Amino acid sequence: MELLPRSPGEFGSARYWDRFFRQRGQRPFEWYGAFPELCPVLHKYVRPRDKVLVVGCGNSELSEQMYDMGMCEDIINIDISDAVIRQMQERSGSKRPKMSYLLMDMLQMDFPDAHFQVVLDKGTLDAILTDEEEATIAKVDKMFAEISRVLQVGGRYLCVSLAQAHVLKKAVEYFSREGWVVRVHQVSGSGDKQQFVLPVFVYVMTKFRKISGSAPQILEICPEEQDKPMRVDSAERLVAAVKDRQHYALLCSQLSKTPCGEQVSLDLCDKESGQPRYTLHVVDSPSVKPSRDNHFAIFIVPQGRETEWLFGTEEGRRQLAASAGFRRLVTVALHREQHYEGMAGIQAELSGKVMELAPPGLPARQQVPFLSVGGDIGVRTVQHRDTSPLSGEYVVEDVKGDGTFYFRRLIFLRNRNVVQSEARLLAPAPLPGQRKRRKDKKKPSPAEPPAAIDKSYLCCEHHKAMVAGLCLLGGLDPLPGTLLAVLVVGLGGGSLPLFVHDYFSQARVAVVEIDPSMLEVATCWFGFSQGDRMQVHISDGLDYVAKLAAEVSALPPAAPAQYDAIMFDVDSKDLTVGMSCPPPAFVEKPFLQKVKTILKPEGVFVLNLVCRDARLKESVLSTLREVFPLLYTRRIEGEVNEILFCQPSPEGRRDPTELGARARALEGALRQPGRPWDSSFVLADMLQAVRIL
């Protein structure tokens, strides 16, 4: 049976609705949900003594149910369809003597001014405002004007709608311009209906006397899970907030029907501030064999560990889901700006929401496990927060790693899932007499991590590879007592130059850093210090190298170049480029030629390359090969980083046996008695995976 109109414009036609209701018969037609879903919102705004007008009533049971439940009895229902009005008069008749049905056009009503306390519209505005043509807008303006006329001051226009952007925007702009308070409720449980995937909303427009001049708009939204409204500052923001909830409903509907081929991510925001509180990733593993208990699980990522490969990358999360053995795993990352009341509190907060992301085929009443590492939510302590004109907002935070160690991290919040710098913290030394105290003395709080930096430990694998690259130096043995001139571009927390300075006792290290804030951070929070053999120059690395190259070029041909090793570990501030390290200007041919000019013939140029764009990466490698005849590469396992070792002369090429021997000799010299050494840092292993390009 054909019940749909030939064109959207027919929704405003009495002739269409007469035909519709004659064909449909006595079966109620419920636009956008029935009374049980709408009742929690309606009862807030409809009082028992109110006079209520229902416009475009159709043959919905909503008015009858409101009457029968005692919500309100003085209800007048109007519609332009004579067929449905007669049908409803027969159906309701003497059962509800205080409720009436009238044939009337809501664009031209017969009621006196200020006659009602409530006007209720269930889908009628959506049916009329099908487009933004001039004639349609004029009809809607007339509808709104009539509703405004028959409502008393303090009265409410309640409009049940799917909240298409143009419909919501028109209603909000019209009534807020008239000085009304506008509030939008999401109807609880409306997003899972078979008829409508999208959630249903109720606009609540409360009439106030219009004040001359410019009165502030009052616009609010009430998400379904909370009663307290959230204020927004513009119609555009209100429309955007509704759109976010619609997208979420569509996502949940999609996830409930089919496995997701690609990982889906979304933020759940704090009710009070509107700021992200949880970041969820939905990971499906179709290869996992289904059983009764492995359909669905939630994994809470401990605070501070969301940047690790296993939790912070698609590939890592896919491996985590497969090893956990669940067909769908939702990983949950916690935000540093938020406070959490332990695992039990998180589980109570998320249990209802994550079930909306359940996979198809989840058995009814299936208990969904919450998983984590070590059973807790980790420790994160923000030690310092500031804003740099160059790097933007950043934080220095201490986090508990996998085990007993704490780590200090520098995070640029413009790219909050990337650790800019990291250092391991030392356990505090016992105070004199501390061992004699009672054994049952209360232990230090886990929220108070140690503060001293372990300078012997390089947290970043790419830093270890860059140090190992010193084995490639030609013409001398890179032993700790050898005179070395090293230039490092990019300071960060200072771990790399500090390690070279401390373990190569005769190395003179020059560091170039464009951002003075980073020197302050490294000094105050990462144990960095300057001295006779360590100097920091606040300058753009491009300018500094260009200046040095010009000075070297002005010297006689026999004069030596300046540096044995040059290391680039500098991030790009432009996140739109597919290369986050270094900035593209640092790998352009004219600049690389200047780098070569200040590098000794037997020296090594070490570059940390982080490039996700395959074409761009190949272009960078091609340019490097044009400038440096000998090029080695070392991929960092589980990361995007690739360390490139570039040498000015092909004569410096070394076979694997010689390279391994030099690495073992250097490591043996660095492991001096009484000097701490990270046993996991094996130079020969670092160079074993090096290959020549």
Automatic annotation (TrEMBL):
<dbReference type="InterPro" id="IPR051419">
    <property type="entry name" value="Lys/N-term_MeTrsfase_sf"/>
</dbReference>
<comment type="similarity">
    <text>Belongs to the methyltransferase superfamily.</text>
</comment>
<dbReference type="Pfam" id="PF01564">
    <property type="entry name" value="Spermine_synth"/>
</dbReference>
<dbReference type="GO" id="GO:0008168">
    <property type="term" value="F:methyltransferase activity"/>
</dbReference>
<dbReference type="InterPro" id="IPR025714">
    <property type="entry name" value="Methyltranfer_dom"/>
</dbReference>
<feature type="region of interest" description="Disordered">
    <location>
        <begin position="429"/>
        <end position="450"/>
    </location>
</feature>
<dbReference type="GO" id="GO:0032259">
    <property type="term" value="P:methylation"/>
</dbReference>
<feature type="domain" description="Methyltransferase">
    <location>
        <begin position="50"/>
        <end position="169"/>
    </location>
</feature>
<dbReference type="GO" id="GO:0005737">
    <property type="term" value="C:cytoplasm"/>
</dbReference>
<protein>
    <recommendedName>
        <fullName>eEF1A lysine and N-terminal methyltransferase</fullName>
    </recommendedName>
</protein>
<dbReference type="Pfam" id="PF13847">
    <property type="entry name" value="Methyltransf_31"/>
</dbReference>
<dbReference type="InterPro" id="IPR029063">
    <property type="entry name" value="SAM-dependent_MTases_sf"/>
</dbReference>
<keyword id="KW-0489">Methyltransferase</keyword>
<keyword id="KW-0511">Multifunctional enzyme</keyword>
<feature type="compositionally biased region" description="Basic residues">
    <location>
        <begin position="434"/>
        <end position="444"/>
    </location>
</feature>
<keyword id="KW-0808">Transferase</keyword>
